[in-house]
Design goal:
heterodimer; A: mainly alpha; 80% helix; flat; B: 143 residues; mainly alpha; two-stranded antiparallel sheet; 8% strand; elongated
Chain lengths: 87, 143
């Protein structure tokens, strides 16, 4: 379990490199979404390690916020505004 | 004139995901007494669902279908919180004093009812109103 947590941490570091270095903003958004997925996996493994179910709602919450953030970035890249007044 | 963008997938996913997010926020709100959750995080999750609706559709359509003045909602939430906090002072206790008891309800069996839920409703209203007001006023940059 510790080994998988270490591997997830290394993956998040590689994704962070892509966030900083990324040639275009699409790469950065995809790397941020991948960081969110890795955080979910890390939380799940951590709750197995601690033998508790207190973090399950946290997993859902990270998923929802990562989803909304990705959609907001996609709208900003596509249209230039995040929330439109009239379509 | 820009061509009209086609976002059928986003609208379909939003109609499904918004229901899940609102249900999860209500679950977080009710779990708040002995488990992680409560008024603040329940209100924030509800605000996240409303922001998802705003992102997927536009402001005017949400305002016609969900006609809530969020500034008044924030003020009402603070009013509810303060009023229920002062409820303990009527019986000679401190401010924000709470009471709970065990009742035998028909369907649920023996349940614990606490007055802290009323305070949490006010907190949730204040959080929803503040978050949505901030986000919609930030988004209006060119008006």
């Amino acid at each position: 379990m510790i080994l998988s947590l270490v591997i997830l941490t290394i993956t998040i570091l590689f994704n962070f490199y892509r966030v900083v270095k990324g040639p275009s903003s699409v790469d950065r958004v995809q790397a941020l979404d991948a960081i969110g997925i890795n955080l979910i996996a890390g939380t799940a493994i951590f709750s197995v390690y601690l033998d508790t179910h207190a973090f399950f709602e946290l997993i859902l919450l990270i998923g929802i916020l990562s989803f909304i953030g990705t959609i907001a970035f996609a709208r900003f890249i596509e249209r230039g505004v995040v929330i439109e007044r009239k379509r | 004139m820009k061509p009209k963008p086609n976002d059928v997938i986003l609208h379909t996913v939003t109609k499904l995901a918004a229901v899940i997010i609102f249900t999860f926020s209500i679950d977080l709100f009710w779990a708040g007494h002995h488990f992680p959750g409560g008024g603040f995080i329940g209100g924030l999750t509800t605000a996240a669902g409303i922001v998802l609706l705003y992102l997927s559709f536009d402001i005017e359509r949400i305002q016609t279908n969900l006609p809530i003045d969020y500034k008044k909602m924030a003020a009402l939430g603070v009013l509810i919180s303060v009023a229920t906090g002062m409820g303990g002072m009527i019986y000679g206790d401190n401010f924000l004093e709470q009471a709970f008891g065990y009742f035998d309800l028909p369907v649920f069996g023996e349940t614990e009812l606490a007055t802290a839920v009323l305070f949490d409703i006010g907190v949730a209203f204040a959080v929803i109103g503040t978050a949505i007001t901030i986000i919609t006023s930030i988004s209006e940059d060119e008006l």
